[in-house]
Amino acid sequence: MSKKQRRTMPQKKRIALIAHDNRKRDLLEWVRFNKHVLSRHHLFGTGTTGSLIKDELALPIHCFNSGPLGGDLQIGSKIVDGEIDVLIFFWDPLEAQPHDVDVKALLRVAVLYNIPTASNRATADFLISSVLMEQTYEREIQLMK
Ligand SMILES: O=C(CO)COP(=O)(O)O
């Protein structure tokens, strides 16, 4: 592969897709709408969200445990290891979760490691249509002073 080809080839991103129960329909609709683009990337999800994406939309996706059973933490750990590039997490602003601390931990490491993160459709639309999807960006810890 020539240098030029390498530069112009869109880079596959590793995208984590997660939604709380009241937001799963919203996420599934968004994934359906963007299926063509998403199919060009590596997808990861928490158990139930990932299974819905696999079963209803026939997209290949690696499923971790369900969120309440540690799935958020598994994805957080992938972020720490530098193995997730984008986080789409439609969390529920109206209902407390039994695993709120795990949710907070995931969102914390996403900020810490400068991971582009969307928690609603408007932001997810920006991310998926962004030049960021074609680039690599700094994944070092962002120190906020
Ligand atoms: O609870 C979740 C994220 O905090 C999502 O988990 P599920 O995809 O297994 O429902």
UniProtKB/TrEMBL annotation:
Transmembrane segments: none annotated. It comes from the Bacteria. GO terms for cellular component: cytosol. Substrate binds at H20, K24, T46, G47, T48, T49, S66, G67, H99. Keywords: Lyase. InterPro entries: Methylgl_synth, Methylglyoxal_synth_AS, MGS-like_dom, MGS-like_dom_sf. The keyword Lyase applies. Gene3D superfamilies: Methylglyoxal synthase-like domain. Its EC number is 4.2.3.3. Catalyzes the formation of methylglyoxal from dihydroxyacetone phosphate. NCBIfam families: MGSA (TIGR00160), PRK05234.1 (NF003559). PANTHER family: METHYLGLYOXAL SYNTHASE (PTHR30492). This is Methylglyoxal synthase. It comes from Caldithrix abyssi DSM 13497.
